[in-house]
Design brief:
Structural class: mainly alpha
Number of domains: 1
Radius of gyration: 21 Å
Strand content: under 5%
Distance between the termini: 29 Å
Length: 141
């Protein structure tokens, strides 16, 4: 069963990693855009309006986006890791579903959707489901 679970679990880990990477790049993207506008020789009034708009939108966007992206990516990564270890079936299911929701993976929804569907299909297999959290030794009485 582990051979069935490994590829979609790794795909979910990649989605989580890409989500964090793209979020970090977007933080720097705002600065790069500001610099490009300053070099575009725009009138100072328009440039100031653009600065004000960027400051307001990026502050709210970074806080909300950071919570959703980083928090979601962490949960997806942890669930994928537990899936890879064949533990925590519910967490693995949660990670698969979160990977398909665009607000948790931002631009990675193009990767998250197929990875999440793939993981769900594998997790819903009755043999895979039965193999999760199976104790190797019987509990002591």
């Amino acid at each position: 069963m582990e051979k069935k679970v490994q590829p979609p679990a790794i795909a979910l880990l990649v989605v989580a990693g890409m989500t964090v990477l793209l979020f970090v790049i977007s933080l720097f993207g705002n600065q790069w855009m500001m610099q490009a506008m300053e070099h575009a020789q725009m009138p100072e009034e328009q440039l100031q309006q653009f600065r004000d708009m960027m400051e307001k939108s990026s502050m709210v966007g970074n806080v909300v986006g950071g919570i959703l992206n980083i928090g979601g990516a962490a949960l997806i990564a942890f669930g994928a890791w537990r899936m890879k270890e064949m533990k925590s079936y519910g967490l693995a299911m949660t990670a698969s579903i979160l990977a398909m929701i665009p607000c948790f993976t931002s631009c990675c929804c193009l990767l998250g959707l197929p990875a999440g569907i793939w993981a769900l299909i594998v997790l819903l297999d009755k043999d895979v489901k039965a193999a999760f959290d199976v104790p190797t030794t019987p509990p002591a009485l």
